[in-house]
Amino acid sequence: MTDSLAKRILVAVLGWAVALLLFFPIFWMVLTSFKSETDAITARLFFQPTLASYGEVFARADYLAFAFNSIAISLGGTVLALALAIPAAYSMAFHPTPRTRGTLLWMLSTKMLPPVGVLVPIYLLFRTTGLLDTRSGLIGIYALMNLPIVVWMLFTFYKEVPHEILEAGRMDGATTWGEVYHLLMPLTLPGVASTGLLSLILCWNEAFWSLNLTSSHAAPLTAFIASFSSPEGLFFAKLSAASTMAVAPILIFGWFSQKQLVQGLTFGAVK
Amino acid sequence: MATLSLRNVRKAYGPVEVIKGIDLDIDDREFVVFVGPSGCGKSTLLRMIAGLEQITGGDLNIDGKRVNEVGPADRGLAMVFQSYALYPHMTVSENMGFALRLAKVPKAERDTKVKEAARILQLGPYLDRKPKDLSGGQRQRVAIGRAIVRAPKVFLFDEPLSNLDAALRGQTRIEIARLHEELATTMIYVTHDQVEAMTMADKIVVLQAGRVEQVGSPLELYHNPANIFVAGFIGSPRMNVIDATVVSAGGGGVEVRLPSGAQIVVEVAAGAMQPGMPVRLGIRPEAMRIDPSGPIAGEVRLVERLGGLTLLHLGAEGRDDLIVQVEGTSAVEAHQAVRVSADGAACHLFDADGLALPRLARHQLVA
Amino acid sequence: MSATSIEAGTAPGDAAPAASAPARSFLVMPSVLVLLVWMIVPLVMTLWFSFRNYNLLDPTTQGFAGINNYAYLVTDPDFWASLRNTLVLLASVLVITVGLGTLLAVLFNQPFPGRNVARVLAISPFFVMPTVAALVWKNLMMHPIYGVLGVVARAFGMQPVDWFSQFPLASVIGIVSWEWLPFALLILLTAVQSLDNEQREAARMDGAGMIAQFFFITLPHLSRAISVVIMIETIFLLSVFAEIFVTTSGGPGNATTNLAFLIYARALLQFDVGGASAGGVVAILLANIVAFFLVRTVARRLET
User: Fold this and answer.
1) Measured distance between the N- and C-terminal CA atoms of chain B, rounded to whole angstroms
2) Which residue among A203, B30, B310, C286 is the one 20 to 30 A from C279 at the CA level?
3) Which domains, ranges and CATH numbers included, belong to chain A?
């Protein structure tokens, strides 16, 4: 190769500089969470680490309840979205009708409706039906919220599967369910996994519906962190500890699954 | 026992009709080849028989029973796909046993049948491999094995050799023919390659634009093509077709005049032929030979030496691609002027509508 | 052959009949139906409320309001500011993330020591929830006295910037861009990696330098991926909420109030359901206008 040593060093330095710069706020958040409040406002790198802030956060709010809600709602929303989307994507990818393309684009356009535009009616509907501040209410909202993107992603994965394989399955006696269960699911497992991962992340981080439709019982970590936002303005260490606790589960999960996520996250953009 | 009959079978996608009414009978244990240019509907027709495409009109009967509305797995057929369509996440033996597993056949019985199929196809050593670890030819055999295991009444093949290289294609052709003999079942085979059709078929069905052009044995189609399309499609190199005019018509045949003025007597039934009518003369490359006193004069444009045979591309009778097949030992060279003659008994004559005039003498193998 | 007849799968009704192809295409219906309900019901309700006098604090004023809510909305300077802010935010973040994302994708496609770890670090912001991102940036990074940026500025002898009062909208744009840059990077990187090496080598044989290769080979190859990034980001950027809610609450004045925040403020801070619904209708209209152009351009690139 003709790449000079100077160029290779430049690339490495640039690459690491960018990576560290982008990661710095997260790093700083974690670092600050181990400081005492007096250390926290000094921006110093070396200090006497302490778990005091974590202790205080735990004492003030039931972290585990919030975390449980986050997990339950994210998983529930993702599973429900996948359950609705898999048949839809199967049908659109393998049994297209002249309307299929329009349907897909219409689905995506529903995603463009700003949630705030329909906040009032949804809020009132939830209030009337007693869904306000329930996990199932939020699961339903999250499934609907992510459904268009989940359908689209699955559709792009299914399009990659040769029709003839499913036809061979049909010749071999597979029912529609058999085609999906025995052939399509195992063949597109990486794609489904990556779709599910993205949906999980989006659910976990969603902060509009969760803030407006929950108060205590079903409140996930986004509400937990919001409760630390204004009054704790200057208690940086406590704020950082709470933030770290809200972000850590999905961040670590994201790190471990990033390879899977990256492989699938193309939305058909890569041929 | 499996006979098929198609009665006025049609297929339309919206207003577009792609299969325009097909009548066909297929006997038990027959090897039938659907052949035609791409887009002629041969694959669609096969898929309709398989149950993968809905039948818009007409009746499809298997063993005398109408099966238009029967699901693909319940018609007792098995299909080998062009892309093989092996299940990539299953091993070879799982691939072959999948249909039995769906049919809830006990595992021991399943294994026996898979092993038997593997023996026939010499796939024994590969049973635990995944398709991606196999060569093209092996994948092809797995696809066939998957069909064999189901012991179908009819095998369907959709251009199964088109993804193989030339050497393997010839070998697999022979294997399929051998398999047909060993399994003694009805087989329907789709291809665009007329060599495959000629070498494998008991009966060839030539399709064009959703219609049957002619049905018959390979040699029947070769020696007595019903029309100019079949004549051009069957046989390689292609039949030469030259515009001509009828000079006289009688019991001994029809005499035609070629553009150069040369005259040839073609041994066909004159029918309604009258002097002056425009016709087209078809001469197969092997029905012509170099003959210093022959009626057709031309110049050799290109010489293709195949070894045993040599093909001469001639500029003659207003054409520059008249092909004459001569011995490989022929010393003819490009740009040489030659005269050729045609065997009037082996020539074909087509009327203005492209229909063949019946030949007076039938070929002994076709009788 | 020994296996004479097993009649695989001959149980009647075991396999779907040939005629069921249309039936299978109806499997899309559950999704379509729930989305339809999800779209239509609130839409109709929003439309209905937008023509009513409906204030949760003042139950006495009820009834039909005509176009009053809309009239009030369009004469409200906050509304026009919010419309402008929404579009500025959308356009800026798109330009920043797609532009930087493309450059970073090319950078991270080059081999260098520890590239995989660097890549994981670079995409980490994508996993951080918007509320936390906003809190961390607001307090730990951009706080004029205690924030890292302020400390750094002072270390160089400069006057620290009070970001959220001096450059409120730019600050929000910065935070949102930080969240979405990793997403753009992820998708564009996959696309860059799929670029055929032979193509690039052919270009090099033709005398294309690094820059020319980027503009004539890499960028055209990325057009599909870029349109996907634009489409997905637009969906989310039109309704940025948490970042504004946490950092500026729309202020100072209306400097960072976008449509989403305006409606939120009307509905849940002023309890003016009618006015908020009128805003909601406008937000939906805006989204549809954007969606119309976007979906059409993107759809052309994505054959379905």
Assistant:
1) 27
2) A203
3) 62-226 (1.10.3720.10)
pLDDT, averaged across chain A:
84
Determine whether the interchain pair C9/B73 forms a contact, defined as Cβ–Cβ distance below 8 Å: yes
Nearest to B113 by CA among B99, B125, B126: B99
Q: Under 8 Å CB-to-CB from B111, ≥6 apart: which residues? A: B93, B97
Q: Other CB atoms closer than 10 Å to residue B23's CB: what's the count?
A: 12
- B22 CB-near residues (< 8 Å, 6+ apart): B6, B8, B9, B10, B45, B58, B210, B211, B212
CA distance A98 to chain B (A): 11
Of A174, A182, A187, the CB nearest to B88: A187
The answer to whether residue B60 scores a pLDDT higher than 90 is yes
Domain B4-230 and domain B233-350 have a common topology = no
d(CA A87, CA C26) in angstroms, rounded, equals 9
What is the band of C303 on the pLDDT scale with cuts at 50, 70, 90?
A: low
Torsion of the alpha carbons at A71, A76, A82 and A88, rounded to the nearest 10: -150
CATH 3.40.50.12780 is the classification of domain B233-350: no
Give the residue carrying structure tokens 């593997």. Answer: B118
Of residues B92 and A212, which shows the higher confidence score?
B92
Q: Give the phi and the psi of residue B357 in degrees, each rounded to 5.
A: -85, 135
Domain boundaries, chain B: 4-230, 233-350
Residue B14 identity (one-letter amino acid): G
> Of the candidates A81, A73, A75, A63, which has an alpha carbon nearest to the alpha carbon of residue A248?
A63
ipTM, 2 decimals? 0.84
- The model's pLDDT over A4-19, given as tens digits with 9 standing for 90+, comes to 788 888 888 999 999 9
The pLDDT, as a whole number, for residue B45 is 94
Q: Are the beta carbons of C31 and A117 separated by less than 8 Å?
A: no
Residue A39: list chain C partners with CB under 8 A: none
As a CATH number, domain C54-301 is 1.10.3720.10
Separation CA A74–CA A205 (nearest Å): 9
pLDDT at residue C295 in the model: 67
Interface check for C231 against chain A (CB to CB < 8 A): the answer is yes
pLDDT tens per residue across span C224-263: 888 888 888 888 888 888 888 888 877 787 888 888 888 8
Strands B309-316 and B288-290: unpaired
**Angle A161-A167-A170 (CA atoms, 0-180°, nearest 5)?**
125
Max avg pLDDT among B88-92, B120-124, B259-263, C287-291: B88-92
Higher pLDDT residue, B342 or C31?
Answer: B342
Distances A214 to A122, A126, A135, A204, B188 between C-alpha atoms, Å: 12, 10, 9, 14, 65
How many C-beta atoms lie closer than 10 Å to residue A4's C-beta?
9
* Omega before B237 within 30 of 0, i.e. cis: yes
Beta carbons of A169 and B87 less than 8 Å apart: yes
Alpha carbon C217 to its chain's center: 28
One-letter identity of residue C247: T
Q: Where are the domains of chain C?
A: 54-301
Alpha-carbon gap, residue B133 to B131, rounded angstroms: 5
Q: Is C11 left (phi over 0), alpha (psi -120 to 50) or beta?
A: beta
User: Cα–Cα distance between C200 and C203 in angstroms, integer?
Assistant: 5
Q: Largest Cα–Cα distance of chain B, in whole Å?
A: 76
Return the CATH architecture of domain B4-230: 3-Layer(aba) Sandwich (3.40)
d(CA B98, CA B107): 11
Q: Is the pLDDT at A1 greater than 50, yes or no?
A: no
Q: How many C-beta atoms lie closer than 10 Å to residue A163's C-beta? A: 15
Chain C residues in contact with B14 (beta carbon < 8 A):
none
Distance (Å, whole) CA C169 – CA C172: 5
